[in-house]
Design a protein that fits this description.
The complex is a heterodimer of chains A (650) and B (356).
Chain A (H helix, E strand, L loop, with lengths): L5 E2 L8 E7 L2 E7 L12 H12 L7 E4 L2 E4 L2 H18 L5 E5 L5 H15 L4 E3 L1 H4 L3 H6 L19 E5 L3 H4 L1 H12 L3 E5 L12 E3 L6 H14 L13 H7 L8 H5 L3 H12 L4 E5 L1 H4 L4 H14 L3 E4 L6 H6 L6 E2 L3 E2 L3 H11 L11 H10 L4 E5 L3 H4 L3 H10 L2 E6 L11 E4 L8 E4 L5 E4 L12 H11 L8 H11 L8 H4 L32 E6 L15 H6 L4 E4 L1 H7 L6 E5 L4 E8 L7 E5 L28 E7 L1
Parallel strand pairs in A: 6-7, 6-15, 8-9, 8-11, 9-10, 11-12, 15-16, 16-17, 20-24, 21-23
Antiparallel strand pairs in A: 1-2, 2-3, 4-5, 4-17, 13-14, 18-19, 20-25, 21-24, 22-23, 22-25
Helix pairs in contact in A: 2-19, 3-19, 3-20, 8-11, 8-13, 16-18
Chain B lengths: L5 E5 L3 H9 L3 E7 L5 E6 L24 E8 L5 E4 L6 E6 L1 H15 L5 H8 L1 E6 L25 E5 L3 E6 L2 H7 L7 E2 L2 H15 L8 H9 L5 H10 L5 H5 L6 E9 L2 E8 L5 H4 L11 H13 L1 H7 L9 H5 L6 H19 L3
Parallel strand pairs in B: 2-6, 6-7, 7-8
Antiparallel strand pairs in B: 1-9, 1-10, 2-3, 4-5, 4-12, 8-9, 11-12
Chain lengths: 650, 356
């Protein structure tokens, strides 16, 4: 092993890996000992992922559809087919009939180029990324409170926290390096309070594990806030914070006494939570997809950020994807330009019009989910997907697959022939993170270098090259050199002003600088009424260690796939007995949106009335059970706490 | 040149020595990487060696048992044709630490006794170990409790002790004598004074350990099955099953094999490091898993490290005190802290069971 490390492309921790190769093959993966996050450790994905990514069933050439068949085609033919589909729609319907969706897997340079490609080359406002399905609600939630849509605390600082509140996150399995720092904090005496309807593996390190009913986090956090407020448990200085009055006023109608009835958590328990957090500064408030994919997710994010701000602590949103932070920073999200400049503001549009030499319309675009609906209605005729297996990441798998089948023209770039790619008109073979240069930004906002350690597999190209190829066929030139793109980003995106490849060749990446932003307290709206009474059970979905997100990459890793040979669901023994189910029984889980079959494992980690359905590989995904219902403020679909019903399968 | 003889290698002549050695074999040595990292790597020039280093977090076992290696390639078109892949390039691992030398000797016992593994054996035969005594153990090191360092009385081919401006050069095996002989003109005889200086440096190193681990007691408790199951289960609850402990352990030797398709009826049989901490490692074809719980898998790991059954078979316990599991564990299940917790748990249990 010699030379420079690259950055792992699995989760948002952003470990530094040394990858040693022999020809086109990886012979060793090793952690960095001195990298501030990695510290000589890797998780199972880091250890085993890279080799498998090169040796799995990768796409080798572009594919073009003729009738029912996808057949190998040369690059120019595939690119030409996409370009003419785009030109055709542009002339008949205009740019609004085209949608572009990116992925939090892509590098910053690629996400930035995606923004430019969609807004400046095609001219469509319909640009979004997979973040819409995972964690987009933290953007409005944090912008209105702590002022930056990112973590306020760095991973190596976590062991110094006095207390932590961790809500709806399977951290030890999903973001192991953060889980590792939580374990270290616990050994240092930090008070760890975990909120999750299901007992997760964090319980080994928790001082207090609170299990509210699924979908009731907002009430619980509001009651917690009110308890801290009326018992005067916050620093005096917090009274001077902007928004303090309206914030405290907005909690006026919250009834502490109803917390037991609504959340199944006693008033005493909330009191204990309040004491542990308020009496042990500094407090770090963390939250994951359990919060970010719930109904009213933006409102819960605001409430949690309010809690951190009120106690003078900090927030750390837990984003699972390697580059979720960077994809949003680069403006690959609906209605935002790079650097979180709102599309609705004229000054932002002027700025990017001058950088990209184009016209940017003020009219808002569609979210990824709205684009799926528009595929069905025909409002979108061409959908371009870069690196996202949308069929599995979108809710209501059946409806989403149907939408992808019905769109007039679908082009997909991916490593594999995913469920989504197999429905496409044109498929481009894309490079993995091991085969291209660029940067990823981890959950702390740390911008880190991704290095090409092996040549591209077969004919695959980076997403940046694929975009540039399509642009060229449309008569526009886009850069192909990641370094030049980063220089352009550094010049124009304030958070990235210090980033350069030269600097990243000298030292580890740094979290993006935080200018003096004064946090404020956001007022909290009232909860929506819970109307889902038709089905008996509540769905708890989770990302367990081994399958990662939709599993496009991780299902190819033999060691990971081997861990769980069959998809399972966990059920409380009392519920199982009532239904006559045993360990190993098969059960059909259904909702108004869809259904799936799983093997039952009895577990007292799951409360009565709930079923825990982990994400697995392929179409057997709990997303199938979710509807197109969204958090109103962010458009993030509601995947958590869906009402479901069970029936035994003979 | 006799086994057991001691020489002086002047630091001014180390470059020449390494260059001369490098003309006959690949030199693997500690080399500066990025951001302060040091790792063993093939070097082309003696100046690339970073003599002033602690240890590589990634154990040098990978030069004998690679993380990923091709065992053979085969074709299934007409008839099955198998093409074995053997590594026969001679190599010297220069600067390897005592703990890792001890671990590699254990690996040799595992792979080359009873059923001999030709791939490992070929690499092992072609490898010569120039170990470097640790004058300054790292914070997490506890080889002193494991009969594996900071210096060795046997097991090395050549052992170097840094005496300041020169190395004491001790020949420990026939192989060591063989590679030293052509370069004897670069070596001078060691004096009594040199050996005395060596002894005082060794004593000094012994006194610098910050971590200790009373492994003997853990061996007793584990072998006698005195550790309450609840203790293993608690360890299991804390384990992240990342696989770092076994991948980073220089003694761990478990592997998996997997075939990958190369196209046109051609396949490659890979061997790579596996971990007893994964459920899939012990699950049987029927679906039954004798180590189904996390706790039972952590227990298995420590049985393999410390139970008398393995000590009898392998000639020593399975830990060399390199401290990598201390650094690499996502929780705190490195050997010293587990040993400490085992001792406490067993003695507390004994107190409970003592007659009033």
């Amino acid at each position: 092993m010699t030379g420079k490390p690259t950055t792992c492309g699995f989760c948002g921790c952003g470990c530094a890996l040394y990858v040693q190769t022999n020809g086109n093959q990886i012979v060793t993966v090793a952690p960095s000992q001195n990298h501030p996050i990695t510290s000589g450790r890797l998780c199972i994905k880091g250890w085993y992922g890279p080799h498998s990514i090169l040796n799995s069933n990768r796409l080798r050439t572009p594919l073009v559809r003729t009738g029912d068949q996808l057949t190998p085609a040369p690059w120019d033919e595939a690119v030409g087919t996409v370009a003419s589909a785009i030109r055709d729609v542009l002339s008949r319907r205009g740019p609004r009939a085209i949608g572009v969706i990116g992925s939090a897997r892509l590098t910053n340079e690629e996400c930035y180029m995606l923004s430019r490609f969609a807004r400046a080359v095609i001219g469509t406002p319909n640009l979004d990324s997979s973040c819409r399905f995972y964690d987009a609600s933290l953007i409005p939630g944090l912008l209105q409170t702590v002022g930056i849509p990112a973590s306020q605390v760095q991973i190596p600082e976590l062991p110094k926290a006095g207390s932590m509140l961790i809500v709806g996150a399977n951290v030890t399995e999903q973001l192991p390096q953060i889980g590792s720092r939580i374990a270290e904090a616990a050994r240092n005496g930090c008070k760890i309070v975990v909120v999750d309807p299901r007992t997760s593996r964090l319980s080994a390190f928790a001082d207090f594990f609170v299990r509210p009913r699924p979908g009731t986090d907002l009430t619980l956090i509001k009651v917690l806030l009110k308890t801290i407020l009326i018992r005067d448990m916050y620093p005096d200085s917090s009274k001077q914070l902007p928004g303090f009055e309206p914030f405290s006023h907005s909690l006026g109608s919250v009834s502490i006494d109803r917390v037991e009835e609504i959340c199944g958590v006693s008033v005493e328990a909330v009191s204990e939570m309040a004491e542990m957090l308020a009496e042990n500064p500094p407090t770090v408030v963390m939250f994951g997809s359990g919060v970010l994919q719930q109904a009213n997710s933006t409102e819960i994010v605001k409430a949690l950020a309010d809690l951190a701000v009120l106690l003078g602590g900090s927030v750390m949103p837990l984003r699972g994807h390697n580059n979720a932070q960077g994809a949003c920073d680069m403006g690959a999200v609906k209605d935002l330009l790079p650097g979180y400049m709102p599309l609705s503001e004229e000054s932002s549009r002027r700025k990017w019009e001058s950088v990209w030499n184009c016209r940017i319309s003020a009219e808002g675009g569609m979210s990824a989910l709205e684009m799926l609906n528009a595929c069905r209605s025909g409002d979108i005729e061409v959908l371009l997907l870069f690196g996202e297996n949308l069929a599995l990441s979108a809710p209501n798998t059946e409806a989403s697959m149907d939408a992808l089948r019905s769109v007039k023209f679908l082009a997909v770039s991916d490593l594999y022939l995913t469920e989504t790619a197999s429905m496409a008109n044109v498929v481009f073979p894309a490079c993995s993170f091991l085969e291209k240069d660029g940067t990823f930004t981890n959950v702390e906002g740390r911008v880190q270098r991704v290095r090409k350690v092996v040549p591209p597999v077969a004919e695959s190209k980076s997403d940046m090259e694929i975009m540039a190829d399509i642009a060229k066929a449309l008569g526009a030139e886009l850069p192909r050199d990641p370094q030049a793109v980063m220089d352009e980003i550094a010049q124009n995106v304030p958070q990235y002003s210090n980033v350069s490849y030269a600097r990243l060749d000298e030292e580890w990446g740094q979290p993006w600088p935080r200018n003096e932003i004064i946090p404020k307290l956001a007022l909290l709206g009232s909860n929506g009424e819970d109307t889902k009474q038709r089905y008996m059970f509540r769905l708890i979905s989770s990302h367990v260690n081994f399958p990662h997100r939709t599993g496009s990459m991780s299902r190819m890793i033999h060691i990971l796939a081997r861990e769980y040979p069959e998809p399972f669901a966990e059920l409380n023994a009392a519920d199982a007995e009532e239904m006559g189910l045993r360990n190993g029984s098969r059960v059909r889980i259904f909702s108004e949106a869809g259904s799936l079959v799983r093997q039952v494992i009895l577990s007292d980690a799951v409360p009565p009335g709930c079923i825990h359905v982990p994400y697995f590989f392929g179409t057997n995904t709990p997303n199938a059970l979710a509807s197109y219902e969204c958090d109103p403020e962010s458009g993030t679909p509601v995947y958590k706490a869906c009402a479901v019903e069970l029936e035994a399968v003979e | 040149m006799k086994v057991g003889s001691a020489f002086i290698l002047d630091k001014a002549r180390v470059g020449e020595f390494i260059e001369s050695l490098g003309s006959e074999m690949q030199i693997v040595a500690p080399k500066r990487q990025f951001g302060g990292d040091v790792a063993f790597a093939a070097i082309k020039h003696p100046d690339e060696i970073s003599w002033d280093y602690g240890n590589d977090i990634h154990p040098p076992k990978r030069f004998l048992l690679p993380h990923y290696e091709v065992l053979f390639r085969y074709k299934t078109n007409d008839s099955i044709q198998i093409e074995p892949v053997m590594e026969e390039r001679p190599q010297a691992i220069v600067g390897i630490r005592s703990c890792d030398v001890t671990a590699l000797r254990q690996q040799e016992r595992f792979f080359c006794s009873q059923i001999c593994d030709p791939h490992f054996e070929s690499r092992s035969k072609n490898t010569v170990l120039f170990s470097l005594v640790c004058n300054q153990p790292r914070e997490e090191c506890f080889c002193i409790c494991c009969d594996s360092g900071p210096y060795l009385f046997s097991g090395y081919d050549v052992q170097l002790t840094d005496l300041g401006d020169r190395f004491l050069y001790e020949v420990g095996s026939e192989k060591g004598a063989e590679v030293s002989a052509p370069r004897e003109h670069l070596l001078a005889n060691a004096s009594e004074k040199d050996l005395k200086l060596r002894d005082s440096i060794w004593l000094n190193a012994d006194a610098k350990f910050q971590t200790t681990s009373y492994l003997a007691k853990a061996i007793l408790f584990i072998s006698a099955n005195e550790v309450p199951q609840s203790v293993w289960d608690q360890f299991g609850a804390e384990c992240f099953r990342c696989g770092s402990c076994t991948n980073l352990c220089p003694v761990c030797s478990c592997f998996n094999v997997e075939d990958t398709k190369d196209g046109d009826g051609a396949f490659t049989r890979w061997r790579y490091w596996d971990s007893c901490q994964f459920a899939g490692f012990t699950r049987e074809a029927s679906g039954y898993n004798p180590r189904a719980t996390f706790g039972s898998r952590v227990q298995r790991r420590f049985y393999h490290k410390a139970s008398y059954q393995y000590i009898t078979r392998d000639g020593r316990h399975g830990c060399v005190g390199c401290g990598r599991c201390v650094v690499g564990c996502m929780a705190d299940l490195g050997v010293p802290s587990v040993v400490k917790r085992l001792r406490r748990a067993v003695s507390e249990q004994a107190k409970l069971e003592a007659p009033a």
